[in-house]
Amino acid sequence: MSTISDIMITERGRGGEFREGGWMRQAGVLDVGCHSALLTVVRWQGAILEPVFSHKVRLRLHKTLDRKGRLGKAGVKSVQRAVAEATTADPHLRLPEVFAFATSVIRDAPNREEVIARVARTTGTLLRVLPGEEEARLAYVAARQWTGCAVGPLLVLDIGGGTVEIASGTGGQPRVVRSLPLGARRITRDCLPGGIASSGWRLAEVRRHLRHCLSMEPGVPRAAPGQRVLACSKTFEQLARFAGAASDEPRRTGRQLTLPQLRAAIRVLADVAPDRRGALPGISRHRAEQSLAGALIAEGLMEACGVASVEICPWSTREGLLLERLGVLDGAYPHDRPAG
Predict the structure, then answer these.
(1) Are strands 22-32 and 98-102 parallel, antiparallel or unpaired?
(2) What are phi and psi of 225, to 5 degrees?
(3) How far is C-alpha 46 from the chain's CA centre?
(4) What are phi and psi of 102, to 5 degrees?
(5) Which secondary structure element, helix H or strand E, spans residue 102, and what is its range?
(6) How far apart are CA 315 and CA 146, in angstroms?
(7) How far is Cα 282 from Cα 263, in angstroms, rounded to an integer?
(8) Between β-strands 309-312 and 228-232, what pairing exists: parallel, antiparallel or unpaired?
(9) I need a surface site. Which of 55, 70, 148, 169 has the fewest CB within 10 A?
(10) 325 CB burial (10 A radius; 0-12, 13-18, 19+)
(11) For 68, how many CA atoms within 13 A lie in the half-sphere containing its CB?
(12) Distances (CA, A) of 182 to 166, 186, 231, 287
């Protein structure tokens, strides 16, 4: 299989763009998740990821799952349509070799192989699935690159739909990675049907459940004094924007989230019906139902890791993949991982 470097040398406009001074490296990733399929093409310009092309197709895969987590026919067809649309959105754009991957909604589905085979057969795109620990590792390398390689000890927290990822380390690669089945979609389905806490007792019960699960997981890293803690994912971003809307420090709105802010947000989210949460600042309509579960998970994670405040990082697994496929990280080279 061609590497990014091979493509840059041989195919102008497909894997690289010629400018004065040489070829510019480009890489593409198609991220198929519960709420969207997002094609992202970037190039490495100086020390930043410069966007080249982006196309998002909205999905509602959580609405097509059965009780066993299988993706139904409507869900499979929507994935096929989304992948086909994303990869052909601009017929004049010569894409680099795109790494297409599916997150936990497909990865954890009992009919995963059937879904992947159907998408490949109808679109020509093979969806890879990354283990949760690999998602945690990629989120860590992305966060470290975002902050700067000399940042020192780093703890990274990431909340997905099916799982949460935790990674910590002091160098370019994490020393500890954990992936736990405590994602916002999963906890909503299992503990808060419809996104509703039916009573204060039920809210306390979900809190106890999350604390128990996190306390029973061996090796969950705790933040050292002075260690920088970054929170990735849309869940953390939206909670920070919601909490920051009432902040007395407008310049920091959405950039930081503290435990007191998070607990105040939980009280509001628990009192607001899911179909009205999309009107709250920072909370998107398509994530409104699982926003309460996401806030409870964030609280449990921060407590388990001994964290009073997190800094919001806009980069996560997708950016980690892009950085590694561009080969811009120390000791990192473009690589493919096998499906499944």
Answers:
(1) parallel
(2) -55, 125
(3) 25
(4) -110, 140
(5) strand 98-102
(6) 7
(7) 16
(8) parallel
(9) 148
(10) buried
(11) 5
(12) 12, 6, 16, 16
Tokens of 122: 């109808």
CA 17 to chain CA mean position, Å = 28
Give the Cα separation of 271 and 261 in Å (integer). 16
Residue environment code for 297-317, b if the CB has 16+ CB neighbours within 10 A, otherwise e: bbbbbbbbbebeebbbbebbb
Domain covering 132-312, topology: Nucleotidyltransferase; domain 5 (3.30.420)
pTM of the predicted model as reported, rounded to 2 decimal places:
0.86
User: 103-107, 130-134, 245-249: which has the minimum mean pLDDT?
Assistant: 245-249
Domain 4-129 in this protein, CATH class: alpha beta
Least confident span in 18-22, 33-37, 193-197, 281-285: 18-22
Q: How many residues does the chain have?
A: 340
Domain residue extents for the chain? 4-129, 132-312
User: In angstroms, how far is CA 329 from the centroid of its own chain?
Assistant: 20
Identify the residue whose tokens are 């890489």: 27
Whether 4-129 and 132-312 share one fold: the answer is yes
Show the tokens assigned to 54.
């982006």
First-residue to last-residue Cα distance in the chain: 18
Q: Which two tokens stand for residue 48?
A: 């930043």
255-283 pLDDT per residue, tens: 999 999 999 999 999 999 999 999 999 99
> How far is Cα 96 from Cα 30, in angstroms, rounded to an integer?
11
Residue type at 176 in one-letter notation? V
Tell me how many helices (H) and strands (E) the chain has. 12, 12
